[in-house]
Specification:
The protein is α+β, with helices and mostly antiparallel strands.
Length: 223
Amino acid sequence: MSALAFVCKAGCVEVLTDTLSFDVETGRVADLSGKQVQIGTSGIIATNGWAMPSDIFTGLATDNCSTFDELVTYGPEIWQAVGNAVRAEYPSERYRYDPYVYIAAIAGWSHERGRSEAYMFDSVTGASVGSPVTAFALGGGDESMDDVLGFIRRFHRAPDEFDAEQHGIQLFESMRRSSSLVGEQRRFTVGGSVERSLVGPAGIQSAAIHNWADRVGERVEVS
C-alpha cells in the first residue's frame, strides 16, 4: 500500500510517491525510506502494493538496465519473470488479493525517442501496458477515488498544466485521508513525505516537497 502519481510533460516527466511502508499485521509504520529507485540518469522506478515482488523487480532492473531506454526494452521481460515466480510460490486465489496486489511504474527520458515517457506494470493481469501513459495516480482508499480519477482525466488531457506543489500535494493529502481495508481492519496507508523526481534530458532531480509527522512503530493518524 502506498501512493504514486506521474505526469509526462513536453520536456520532462514528474514522479511523485509517498515514503511510508507499513506492517500489514499491525498497521504500524515499518519504514519511511522511500519508494523510488533511479536507473542511471534517465529513469525512475516507483512501486505500489506488495513490497516483496516489487523489490525483486527493482533489483533485477537495476542489475540489468543502465538507462531508461534499456528499462523500457527489458522491463516487460523482467516483470514477467517476477510474476511467474510469484504465481509459482503463491496460490492464485491468494495472490490476487490485498496485500498481494502490486504494480510498478517506470518513468523517464527516452534519449532514443527524444521525449518523456512512463509505463505501467500490473500484477492482476500479469502483464504490462504496451504504450506510454501520460498521467496516472493510485493510492489511498475508496474515499479518494473521485480525486484520483479526476487527476488522471485532467492531466491526461493537459499534462503541462500540472504543478507538483499545488496539484500533487493536494492529491496526496486526499489519498492520505482515505483509508484502505487491510485484512479485517481499515488503515491509513499514505504518509512519511511526498518525494518528487523530475526527469528530463539533463538528468534527474529528486527532493521531498511535503512532509507529515509519521513515526516508525506508530500507526498513521489523520486528523
